[in-house]
Amino acid sequence: MINEHLIPSIGVITDIRRDTPDVKTFRVLGLDGKKPFEHKPGQCAMLSVPGVGEAMFSITSSPTNEEFMEFSIKKCGCLTEVLHSLEVGQQVTVRGPYGKNFPVEGEFKGKDLLFIAGGIGLAPLRSVINYVRHYRKNYGKVVIVYGARSMDDLVDINEIKTEWMNEPDFNVYLTIDRPQEGWDGHVGFVPAYVKELGLDPTMTAVLCGPPIMIKFTLQGLLELGFDKSRVYTTLELRMKCGIGKCGRCNVGDKFVCKDGPVFRMDELDELPDEY
Amino acid sequence: MTDLENKIIERAENLLESGEAARVVGWKKGEFYFDPSPAEFDSKEQLRDFVYNGFCGANLSKYLIQVSKKPGKTAVFLKPCDTFSLNQLVKEHRVNRDNIIAIGIECNGKLDIEKIKEKGVSAVTEASETGKEVTVSSLYGKSVMNKEDILLIKCLTCKSKKLVGVDETIVLGEMEEAPSDRFEEVEKLEKMTEAERFAFWKSQLSKCIRCNACRNVCPACSCVKCVFDNPQSGVAAKANDDEFEEQLFHIIRAFHVSGRCTDCGECSRVCPQRIPLHLLNRKFIKDINTCYGEYQAGEAADGKTPLTDYTVGDVEPNDVFNAGVRK
Amino acid sequence: MIKVDRTKADGMYAAISEKMPLFIPVKSAGEVNYAPWEKGADVSLDTLKTVKSAKDFFFPQSETMMRFKAEGKKIEIIDDRKEVAPFVIFGVRGCDYRSFDILDKVFLQEPVDTYYKERRDAAVIVTMACAKPEESCFCSVFGIDSADPKGDVTCYADDKYLYFKSNTDKGAKLMEIIGAFGTEGGEKEVEAQKKNTREIMEKLPFTHLDLSVFKPENLNKLFASEEWASLSEACLGCGTCTFVCPTCQCFDIRDFKTNDGVIRFRCWDSCMYSDFTQMAAANSRTTQLQRYRQRFMHKLVYYPSQYGGTYSCVGCGRCVNKCPQRLNIVKVIKRLGDKEND
Q: Which of B38, B209, B231 sits opposite C52 (nearest CB)?
């Protein structure tokens, strides 16, 4: 067969985990039982259910996981609705990896890292957080601030509680939007919590979540003295090809599929406000 | 500048200056004499670019759907056929008539630059009309053309010179009736054999590039979300199984606007492949006239319409079936 | 150079099409578009602008990319493309010929789009020199010499003769067929025509359009220009400009369910359409102003920024002639040039 990037390969769903009422995590392997392909933290892949459509998802599992690839997917449209209805053993198609990764081998090295996520925004960060855990000695201390609407909406809470919270030099702060029975942790929105925590502005920060959260969290970070050149985020726009040809995921002269999805805040400042 | 254009601009100026209108919708000068675009004018300064000449074929009524939602009143200049479109939009509650000052203006048919170019005249700098003749000036000199030869398709068979439902009019002379009967073209198609008619539409509709210009310009196509743009509808395909599949789009569209299409002819004017799309709609108009009695959509902004009201005299569905399918 | 009497042209087309498919501007139902040559075809070689451009040959309006068959939980992916046999595109004007370079930059950059490449490689291109450019032409603004386009073979035409010159090996092979229908000669006539065409080009109204403001460093300034509101106000949001444009290359990929599995196809899309950037829960361009701005910023700023300064416009003027409401790239260039040039 001709090596055509738009032609996917077959992926087999080998495990489905319900994380929250509207988020499921899918484990995907190639037909040979191995990972469909190698990737770097922050990169994405195109998943499709033929007949329904194809869309870009961030790869949630860490590249250091040698056995499988995982995608945490929120039910919010046609394709994701169908994905949520699938059973283990179902085949889908997968192609990738696409996009620029977090600079885990570059700017992140040796730095103290701050991860801030809201809701499903944790999905792309899980990959990089677990990568950092794997190569723990390459990085400084790690702070994670993660918020969701309710305690039921916190994705991967088990891993967070049993693994991340027990990692040396890992500080994990959780928050939910409104008080809830059974929750004795912090209550409040992520941006406000970030300011309350009075975080160390020399850390390198990564933000991921709904645009409104990113906007206000960034403001908070800047007030705390963070520099935009050390704050990263990811963008999400409609994509069809994933390789910078179909022409729709651009912000100014950058394609999110190719030049993103990871952007530094000072880079984003240079681009038109259309995302 | 013609007297008519002068009068129109004068009126626009004083509507804006007196504050009666917050804005005026008209036509704006383009790069050439023959390429004015619809535009909104908010100030006297902007009116310097206002034009009304032989190339102002565009029907401005559909813009009023959006513009009439803006604060203040909007004055709009409408040619006779455009006034039918506004009326119809008002009837369908798409335009808030209270916010509109409708000014009916004289029109004796608008010109088609493509037809002029086909006569070998390019770089047109002016076209002045005197009765049945048009003197076309270009960088290469002047030529006198028979107006009928260079009219837009829609103007060859203009349905009416009436200015309906307007608040005021600017008409300086007698408007001439259209050169030919608009149903003659439909009759020609009706007289064809089924095979001939199929061949005609196949050759025409196979040119379609599905740019949606006909739909987007159509004042009757005012759905907020067209069924063909709705991925959930199952008919939103952007590609065809074969070159003639576009017939479905055009025939469904013709059905949807039947009884509401005023025959403004914009669909044919804007088609980049010059498909005579108006003939599909006109066939429906003719059949409605035959089956339910004479009816002109947009003639009034209220009243009953043949396809949405039942009367005892209505044609029996079986008669329609026999007249069409079985013929 | 080979000189062929126009009365022999049909014979020549027949001879070429015996060897491989020949596509040429043909008038059908009143309009001229590229079509396969067949006996009796109303060839319209002197038509300056086919309605649709020549990009269709490499980037067709729609094409099947692959098929899927599902059985139980299993899926099979079928790529049953056949090898593309060589074919001739006859009559490509200088503007459309340049558009291939612009499309190449997108489709042939890594990772290569093989659907495009297979067709691109199979084509033998006969360009057609312009003798009578019209007022909507402005290819010279982009450094295109419509009087002497390249391609595998260049064809020059006057009222009586067609003149052919080969530029490549592929072209030389085609000339073997063409040569049988003509004689050597015509250099003098062709040189005179080139000179004449260039003189006309120089006098056309858009020849001296000033593009100097359109450079990557002005991206944000141009994006923020207040002019977009009035430039776009009459835009219908149709796809005419996009679909007649030889350089517009945005596409959609969709699935189509059939009784025999699923077809995944690619088709032209338009940034002018409201659903172009629609996602499940958000849309980055919700107004026609944004969509209109995207189209022209892409051609005049984003594309040049991505591909070494080349503009994604060839000045063919199709949008000038075909926009239903007479909006076009020239108006954008002039207005932004006037207002945003310091």
A: B209
Tell me which residue has tokens 């570059």.
A106
- CATH class of residue range A9-98: mainly beta
| C91, C45 contact by CB (below 8 A) | yes
Task: Choose the mutation target among C240, C320, C327 for the interface with B, i.e. most B CBs under 10 Å.
Answer: C240
C150 touches chain A (CB under 8 A): no
A113-234 and A9-98 share a CATH fold: no
Query: Least CB-CB distance to B38: which of C274, C325, C328?
Result: C325
- Please give the model's pTM, rounded to 2 decimal places: 0.93
Whether B127 contacts B135, CB under 8 Å: yes
Task: Give the CATH class of A113-234.
Answer: alpha beta
Whole-angstrom Cα distance, residue B87 to residue C334? 37
C114: nearest CB among A4, A50, A241: A4
Is residue C246 within 8 A of residue C318, CB to CB? The reply is: yes
Residue spans per domain, chain A: 9-98, 113-234
Quote the pLDDT of residue B120: 86
Distances (CA, A) of C278 to A237, B215, C242: 9, 20, 18
Q: Which of C170, C172, C193, C123 is nearest to C1 (CA)?
A: C172
Helix (H) or strand (E) holding A38, with range, is: none
Neighbors of chain B with 3 or more C-beta pairs under 8 Å: C
Query: How confident is the model over C1-23, as pLDDT tens digits?
Result: 999 999 999 999 999 999 999 99
Interface test with C, best of B28, B31, B137 (most C CBs within 10 A): B31
CA of C173 to nearest chain B CA: how many angstroms apart?
33
> How large a percentage of chain A has pLDDT more than 90?
88
> What pLDDT shows up at residue C31?
95
- pLDDT tens digits, chain A, 275 residues: what are they? 456 889 999 999 999 999 999 999 999 999 999 999 999 999 999 999 999 999 999 999 999 999 999 999 999 988 999 999 999 999 999 999 999 999 999 999 999 999 999 999 999 999 999 999 999 999 999 999 999 999 999 998 989 999 999 998 999 999 999 999 999 999 999 999 998 998 999 999 999 998 889 989 999 999 999 999 999 999 988 889 999 999 999 999 999 999 989 999 999 999 998 88
Nearest CA in chain A to C271: A248
Q: Does A250 touch chain C (CB under 8 A)?
A: yes
Nearest CA in chain A to C277: A238
Place of tokens 């010109």: B111
Q: Tell me, what's the pLDDT at B130?
A: 86
How large is the ipTM? 0.91
Distance (Å) from the alpha carbon of C323 to chain B's nearest alpha carbon: 8
Residue in C with minimal Cα distance to B221: C236
Predicted local distance difference test score (pLDDT) of residue B237: 63
List of E strands, C151-231: 153-157, 161-166, 182-184
DSSP C242-303: HHH-SS---EEEEEEEETTEEEEEEEE--TTSTTTTB-SS-BS--SHHHHHHHHHHIIIIIH
Return the residue of B nearest to C333 by Cα: B31
Q: Which two tokens stand for residue C262?
A: 């699923």
> Measured between beta carbons, which residues in chain A are less than 8 angstroms from residue C224?
272
- Report the SS3 class of residue B146: strand
Give the pair of three-digit tokens for residue C217: 């460093």
Cβ C66 vs Cβ C101: under 8 Å? no
Q: Which residues contact A80 (CB under 8 A, 6 or more apart)?
A: A55, A73, A74, C280
State whether C29 and B206 contact (CB < 8 Å): yes
Q: Which residues of chain C have pLDDT under 70?
A: 342
Q: Quick check: B239 pLDDT over 90?
A: no
Q: Which residues of C touch A82 (CB under 8 A)?
A: none
Spatial contact of C325 and B58, defined as CB atoms under 8 Å apart: yes
